[in-house]
Amino acid sequence: MTTSAETPTAAVALKSRHLLGIAGLDADEITLILDTAEAMKEIGGRAIKKVPTLRGRTVVNLFFEPSTRTRTSFEIAEKRLSADTLSIATATSSVTKGESLLDTVRNIEAMSPDMIVMRHASSGAPHLLARLCRSTIINAGDGMHEHPTQALLDAFTIREHKRRLAGLKVAIVGDLLHSRVLRSNVELLNTMGAHVWACAPSTLMPSHIRDFGVTATTSVDEAVDGADVVMMLRIQHERMHGHFIPSVREYFAMFGLTPERLRRAAGDAIVMHPGPMNRGVEIDSAVADGPYSVILEQVSNGVAVRMAVLYLLSGRDSMDPLDVH
Amino acid sequence: MPLVMDADRMGRALTRMAHEILERNRGLDEIALVGIRTRGVPLARRISRSLHDINGDDVPTGALDITLYRDDLMRHAVGPQPVVRRTEIPFSIDGRKILLVDDVLYTGRTIRAALDALIDFGRPQGIQLVVLVDRGHRELPIKADYVGKNLPTSLKQSVQVHLQEIDGKDEVLIEGEA
């Protein structure tokens, strides 16, 4: 705007108009999102935590699964960017009357929103909508598949503490079988050059874990040994239709992160958890509330990362992908 | 490409503006400098250094990124968004006189965005505008208080400011037909 009429643009930009997963993002795109999030984070520290960027844009948060953290985080991010937002939880919607996913979304689209943030219990649901709908779709978690903004906020938090991602040893411990957080994090950390160690009891280890490009182990001590980052995942009782662990007490004894186990990690290690935490199941309270824990920072950073994603995707023509000229 | 300002002339212009700032404000007690990213930031630092050299006072200096306040952001619906960089204003602007610094004053739209952004940080006692080059063609009722050089241009021309800190060289160039 100063020296010429041209609009200065990013050297890199997001290639897709949707954010469906980390799969498909390259290192430059991930770095662009994380760098943009750094600028967004500063807005959260101001007296007036709001910028006019998405004025007049409408964002619908469509949550077919319960969520407190992610939905609140998206709503705050949208409001800080001045978007008009509304949130639909399925318990109070026509979904309970038997409407199909596609019909629900087509009806919402008839009211011309610009973006739809969605969470769904079925893996691939947002991908289906992205093909069939005109709005920009942001995946806020689909079944056991991906949760891209969680992986991005995790990476942002790691980068704040370690100044880098490449070369770090990241141990991910817990219910890996049912975890979309694992998948998105592995995709991201591998792309950025970190070394991921995946640790779970064999009943909760995905059978194709080798294809993930991680080091798999059933020993927590081995996974945590010298780790720069220890990421604990929740035991997902609601997705377990069978017997995966003998008892919560035994799981904690074998796999729970205690101060003793954490001593094996690097001296400046950080402990992460995407929440909600089961204290005394996957993590000891002394660790969750201890000096190495960055669990609440993850939550704060989630807002900044989601603002970055909303901003970067808003440049795309959301209403008619065919009319690009 | 015709050179309209070399390193010497740029240095003299900045020093002159520093003197004008001191004269107009009778001291630096309530003054703070805020540079607009990208090239306003090193210019603000240099003016701060000049003020220190003349008066011995340290003037707080910040950096403002106006990208999220641009009025053309959502106008081009297709294509990548401009890069957003950090705003760093490590002091309260309440009750201060803010000297807003940019390299080129042209349509005035950047300054409009910067004023909106600044007001979100607090209620300054006043805001004054410092620019290295005023090339004319305002589209909004905005005027600079301190100008390094008035440079009449045509709409077809573009003005390039290069600074040591970013471009490795201090110069102002004018490009294109008059």
Summarize the structure.
With 325 residues, chain A is of the alpha/beta class. Chain A is built from eleven helices and nine strands. Chain A has helices at residues 27-43, 69-80, 101-109, 125-132, 148-162, 180-191, 220-224, 248-255, 259-262, 285-288, 295-314, and strands spanning 58-63, 84-89, 115-120, 136-142, 169-173, 195-199, 215-217, 229-232, 270-272.
Report on the structure:
The complex is a heterodimer of chains A (325) and B (178). By secondary structure, chain A is an alpha/beta fold. Chain A has eleven helices and nine strands. A five-stranded parallel β-sheet of chain A has the order 7-6-5-8-9. Chain A has a four-stranded parallel β-sheet with strand order 2-1-3-4, with helices on both faces. In chain A, strand 5 (169-173), helix 6 and strand 6 (195-199) form a beta-alpha-beta unit. Residues 1-9 and 318-325 of chain A have low confidence and may be disordered. The mean pLDDT of chain B is 94. In chain B, helix 2 links the parallel strand 2 (31-36) and strand 3 (61-64). By secondary structure, chain B is of the alpha/beta class. Chain B has helices spanning 7-25, 40-55, 109-119, 164-167; strands spanning 3-5, 31-36, 61-64, 97-105, 126-134, 146-150, 158-162, 171-175. The longest helix of chain B has 19 residues, at 7-25.
Parts with pLDDT < 50 across at least 5 consecutive residues of chain B: none
What number of structural domains do the residues of chain A give?
2
Please tell me the overall pLDDT of chain B.
Answer: 94
In what order do the strands lie side by side in the largest sheet of chain A?
Answer: 7-6-5-8-9
What is the approximate shape of chain A?
globular
Structural class given helices, strands, pairing of chain B? alpha/beta
The N- to C-terminal Cα distance of chain A equals 23 Å
Largest interface: A-B, 41 and 39 residues
Shape of chain B: globular
- Name of the CATH architecture of chain B: 3-Layer(aba) Sandwich
Q: How many DSSP-defined strands of chain A?
A: 9
Give the SSE order of chain B as H and E letters: EHEHEEHEEEHE
| Beta-strand share of residues of chain A | 5-15%
Main sheet summary of chain B: 5 strands, parallel
The CATH class name of the largest domain in chain A reads Alpha Beta
Structural class of chain A: alpha/beta
